[in-house]
Amino acid sequence: MKKNAGTVFGMMMILAAGSSAFANGTKDSGSVTAVTVTASGSSALLPLVKDAAAKYKSVNPAVSVNVSGGGSGTGLAQVSDGSVDIGNSDVFAESKLSADKAAALVDHKVCIITMAPVINNELAKTVKNLTKQQLIGIFTAQTKNWKEVGGPDEPILLVTRPTTSGTRALFKQYALDNNEEASNKSLETDDSGTLLQTVSGNKGAIGYLALSYLVNNSAVSTVSIDGVAPTMQNTYNGSYPVWGYEHMYTKGTGNKAALDFIAYITGSDYGKLMEAQGYCVTSKMKVTR
């Protein structure tokens, strides 16, 4: 009788343990707890991170990666204050944060992005190349009509980006030689999809986009700078100057789930998929910064 009582007691303990585990969200010792990784920031990196998040979940079903844009400045501010696990940025943290906040972050360079001037397709029939000085004149609003640079008699319409934009910071540094972009608040956006649509729908419009938004997309046309086309090949060989590293920042070393996701993106398997999306692989670059 004592033996039977012990057996019953043991079974009750097992059932109680099982109930407790169920209440805590796990089925048994072999189950995996659901994890969510949050990331925000760069609109240029957004398509890649969204694609990687979907593919990562297909092989890691317990992990969800929630990704949003907002611009590099937003991503860096949010990872710095702990609002997100990963801050995506087109620029180094030091250019957007104070020295002490930037020092608290760890940089994970994941790929290279190329920025291209883009114009309306109708305009592209006559404007195919601009010198850097012509580009500076256009974006600083010193040049106001396309006929001044060999185009039609058409007012230039600037589609601009906010100062928090990492894409803007890269373009300013490498395309405009650090000249300040003129403001056009009525057509200011850090949503690259919106910018693309605006340029596409306005004959005199010009803006700039990451190549990742131009893959299999003929809604707008790119413009060469000093005779060099904004292509991945010209980025790799260093002849096209408007490119930068794409960063995924963590606060400190970051949590394991975030680091595992970053490792997936920078791994050789996913690296093979980057170029098809318009991103350059860092290992192929002939030049560095």
Low-confidence stretches: 1-29
Mass-distribution shape: elongated
Fraction of helical residues: 25-40%
SS content category: alpha/beta
What is the residue-mean pLDDT, rounded to a whole number? 90
Tally of extended strands? 10
CATH topology of the largest domain: D-Maltodextrin-Binding Protein, domain 2
Q: What sequence of helices (H) and strands (E) makes up the elements?
A: HEHEHEHEEHEHHEEEHEHH
| Gap from first CA to last CA | 79 Å
Number of domains: 2
Largest pleated sheet: 8 strands, mixed
Q: What is the CATH architecture assignment of the largest domain?
A: 3-Layer(aba) Sandwich
Q: How much β-strand is present in the residues?
A: 15-25%
Number of helices: 10
CATH class of the largest domain: Alpha Beta
Task: Give me the Rg, rounded.
Answer: 24 Å
CATH superfamily of the largest domain: Periplasmic binding protein-like II
How does this model look, in words?
35% of the residues lie in helices and 20% in strands. The chain has 289 residues and is an alpha/beta fold. The chain folds into two domains: 35-112 and 246-284, Periplasmic binding protein-like II (D-Maltodextrin-Binding Protein, domain 2), CATH 3.40.190; 114-236, D-Maltodextrin-Binding Protein, domain 2 (3-Layer(aba) Sandwich). Mean pLDDT is 90; it is low at 1-29. The strands form two sheets. Strands 1, 2, 3, 4, 6, 7, 8 and 10 form an eight-stranded mixed β-sheet that branches. A two-stranded parallel sheet has the order 5-9.
